[in-house]
Design brief:
The chain has 246 residues and is mainly α. It has ten helices and no strands. The longest helix has 28 residues, at 217-244. The protein is globular, with a radius of gyration of 17 Å.
């Protein structure tokens, strides 16, 4: 049952990524951290996000804004190591709570930041990348920080979605490598689970391609927010309940 739920979560995350340009980590991180624990859950999120972004990048590379991509990646490089360090110190229950709270706050902020409140200078882009890299390594969810930046600077959605694919590929790869370097191995993931997980990612992209043609952009965006909030709340409630001894 747990394996089926893991694969279903990965498929939904990949489908959301194809529909909206982002969403794999937002959808899958709360559930995978809940099911697998902090380290293994974040590790699987990063690998799945890398694989999904690589497949999507092959289709959208012409629309990537490479200047912004470079600045985001440089910023993220400074955030990944502190994020991995946090992951080694924080118990799984606290990570579950943190993942849920961070996602909810990130989504709320992304919807409320004024488009005139943030400049488009290089240091702002790099700062967003640094926060994203830290969150990606610590909780597997680097998207909210970049999303807040995109909303605050009125970044065109198509270009943002395209640029996010090589960014997620690089940052996810950095986080995945840093985690394995620090820890040496996974804690409890069965080796045979990796191949079905990657196959399910590909299946989710095919499903997302079909759904993208059926749904309007407004409906797809609202669906992403609903799924993300529900998953985040589930992780936050479980982590908080365990911490409180309920």
């Amino acid at each position: 049952m747990t394996t089926a739920l893991i694969l279903l979560t990965v498929m939904l995350g990949a489908a959301a990524q194809r529909i909206t340009g982002m969403g794999f980590a937002i959808i899958s991180a709360p559930i995978l951290v809940l099911l697998l624990g902090g380290f293994d859950g974040v590790l699987m999120v990063n690998l799945g996000a890398c694989f999904t972004s690589a497949l999507m990048f092959a289709r959208v590379w012409r629309e990537v804004q490479w200047r912004r991509w470079r600045l985001l990646v440089v910023g993220a490089a400074f955030g990944v190591i502190p994020g991995v360090w946090i992951l080694t110190l924080v118990p799984a229950d606290w990570l579950e709570l943190a993942v849920g709270v961070i996602i909810v706050l990130g989504l709320v902020a992304a919807g409320r930041v004024s488009t005139s409140a943030t400049s488009d200078g290089r240091y702002v882009v790099m700062a967003s990348g640094a926060v994203s890299g830290l969150m990606n390594a610590a909780a597997g969810i680097g998207g909210p920080a970049v999303t807040v930046y995109a909303v605050a600077t009125s970044w065109d959605q198509r270009s943002f979605a395209a640029t996010l694919q090589p960014y997620s590929l690089i940052v996810g790869g950095m986080s995945f490598s840093a985690m394995l370097t620090v820890h040496g191995a996974t804690h409890g993931l069965e080796p045979w689970l990796w191949a079905p997980m990657l196959a399910t990612c590909a299946t989710g992209l095919v499903l997302g391609e079909w759904l993208r043609r059926q749904l309007s952009a407004v409906v797809a965006y609202r669906l992403l927010l609903i799924l993300a909030v529900l998953g985040a709340l589930a992780a936050a409630v479980r982590g908080g309940s365990t911490i409180a001894g309920l």
